[in-house]
């Protein structure tokens, strides 16, 4: 147990659906992250939040919409996804946004877009 | 294009043997290099955060070194055990960037 939970663990959705991924951290951390891992690719950073403010958006398509209502919760809202968006989505948190802070990862949500 | 390369991609090691693998990263705009261990069906877990050139860190049988001038880090495992089977990821922290390598998949043979 890393102290970071993600729900759901598996999700199958059609291209016209709207769904949300949820991440919760119980570590009192101030920074949270969304990563995407596609098959045979490295982890790709999508979004970074520090104290509920978005500080990084790595040119992610607008069909992915993050939300951070408080420092313990992070959501990724999904709509009109494409089959190539099928991937493992990992959430992580760290004490602060500094490069010195190790990241604690959740177990991920395996997303399949049909 | 900034790239983080890990080699080898996959490695089979006899139980009890020692092994090492490499992470290569950009030598400019460097802030930190992180190592993570990712076991199947679990979450990636932090091993080391390294920031200074010449850094050496150790955790039990696992250690890591850092050369920021030439842009590489080595991870060493001494006396491999079955529980060391995992994918080992390195991540480059640069100027407004976090870039992960694809990982080295380590299999420990009994």
- SSE sequence of chain A, one letter per element: EEEEEEEEEEE
What pattern of helices and strands is seen along the backbone of chain B?
EEEEEEEEEEE
Largest interface here, residues on each chain?
A: A-B, 21 and 22 residues
**Which structural class matches the secondary elements of chain B?**
mainly beta
The low-pLDDT segments of chain B are none
Q: Report mean pLDDT of chain B, rounded to a whole number.
A: 96
Number of strands of chain B: 11
Helix/strand structural class of chain A = mainly beta
Distance separating the two termini of chain B: 41 Å
Coarse morphology of chain A: globular
Question: How much of the sequence of chain A is in beta strands?
Answer: over 45%
Helix content of chain A: under 10%
Shape of chain B: globular
Largest sheet of chain A: 7 strands, mixed
What value does the Rg of chain A take, in angstroms?
A: 13 Å
The tally of strands of chain A reads 11
In whole angstroms, the N-to-C terminal distance of chain A is: 31 Å
Record keyword descriptors for this entry.
heterodimer, A: 114 residues, mainly beta, 7-stranded mixed β-sheet, 4-stranded antiparallel β-sheet, B: 110 residues, 6-stranded mixed β-sheet, 5-stranded antiparallel β-sheet, globular
What does this structure look like?
The complex is a heterodimer of chains A (114) and B (110). By secondary structure, chain A is mostly beta strands. In chain A, 0% of the residues lie in helices and 56% in strands. Chain A contains no helices and eleven strands. Chain A is globular and about 40 Å long. With 110 residues, chain B is mainly beta. Helix content of chain B is 0%, strand content 58%. In chain B, strands 2, 4, 5, 9, 10 and 11 form a six-stranded mixed beta sheet that branches. In chain B, strands 1-3-8-7-6 form a five-stranded antiparallel beta sheet, with no helix packed on it. In chain B, β7 and β8 (72-77) form a beta hairpin. Classes of the chains: A mainly beta (114), B mainly beta (110). Chain A binds chain B through residues 2, 4, 40-45, 56, 90, 92, 99-108, and chain B through 4, 31-32, 34, 36, 42-46, 49, 51, 89, 91, 93, 96, 98-103.
């Amino acid at each position: 147990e890393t102290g970071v939970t993600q729900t759901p663990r598996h999700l199958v959705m059609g291209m016209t659906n709207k769904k949300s991924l949820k991440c919760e951290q119980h570590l009192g951390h101030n920074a949270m992250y969304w990563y995407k891992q596609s098959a045979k690719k490295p982890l790709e950073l999508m979004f970074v939040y520090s104290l509920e403010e978005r500080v990084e958006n790595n040119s992610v398509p607008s069909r992915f919409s993050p939300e951070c209502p408080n420092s313990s919760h992070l959501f990724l809202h999904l709509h009109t996804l494409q089959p190539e968006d099928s991937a493992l989505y990992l959430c992580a948190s760290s004490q602060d946004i500094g490069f010195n802070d190790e990241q604690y990862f959740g177990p991920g949500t395996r997303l399949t877009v049909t | 294009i900034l790239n983080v390369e890990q080699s080898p991609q996959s490695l089979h090691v006899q139980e009890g043997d020692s092994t090492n693998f490499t992470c290569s990263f950009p030598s400019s705009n460097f802030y930190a290099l992180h190592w993570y261990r990712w076991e199947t069906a679990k979450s990636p877990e932090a091993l080391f955060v390294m920031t200074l050139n010449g850094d050496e860190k150790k955790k039990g049988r696992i250690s890591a070194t850092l050369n920021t001038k030439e842009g590489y880090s080595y991870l060493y495992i001494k006396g491999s055990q079955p529980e060391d089977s995992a994918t080992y990821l390195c991540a480059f922290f640069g100027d407004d960037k976090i870039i992960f390598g694809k990982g080295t998949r380590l299999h420990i043979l009994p």
